[in-house]
Amino acid sequence: VTFGSQADKPFVPGVPVGTVSRVDPSGGDLTRTLYVTPFVSFTKLDIVGVVVQAPKKDPRDTVLPEKPKP
Fold first, then answer.
1. Is 13 exposed, middle or buried (0-12, 13-18, 19+ CB in 10 A)?
2. What's the pTM value of the predicted model, to 2 decimals?
């Protein structure tokens, strides 16, 4: 699971925060409630990094091979 938004949202786009562990209906046909198991154990944190500005490009693109030339 990632939550991507750069407009005053709590997570940096493209950075995984956890996995969906359960999906429940929320009363309507169009909505669902998701339960997410975070990747971090909050009781075992020693160091926390703070992202002050999200990168302009998706950092995952750096691991992709170069596009072939036409």
1. middle
2. 0.47
